[in-house]
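Justification of computing resources. Each target in the renewal requires a structure prediction run like the one illustrated here; the chain below, 143 residues long, is used simply to show the kind of job we budget for.
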Amino acid sequence: MYPEYFIAPMREELSRHGIEETRTPEDVDRILAPGSGSVMMVINSVCGCAAGKARPGIAQSLQHSVKPDKVATVFAGGDVAATARVREILSDYPPSSPSVALFQDGKPVYYMPRSAIESSDALTISENLKRAYEQYCGSPQDA
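Resulting structure tokens:
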């Protein structure tokens, strides 16, 4: 586990955009419960591709008129049990951090692994997420 003082700024980079932290398995189960609508879950990380690509791309994508009903995050290396719970739910995909998953009523419908993040820039990540929002998240919301 990373010390909290070390990862706090990386947590804040997402939470300042209204992304809810899910720090326990119970938080994860609550946000991804059946009937929860569309939820984007970000598995945050300390790595450079999270800092330079994933977090900026995610923030840009949330300016789109179509977006998930809820957006949440766990921090790999910080929220160990919560991250394990998300990975259990995403058991059809290899563990990856950073990564982004879209859920519809608690079931995964889209997944962006670290390999897709590493090979893209923030703008490309944002555009890919926007397309996923349009496909899985329904009608426009206030940006």
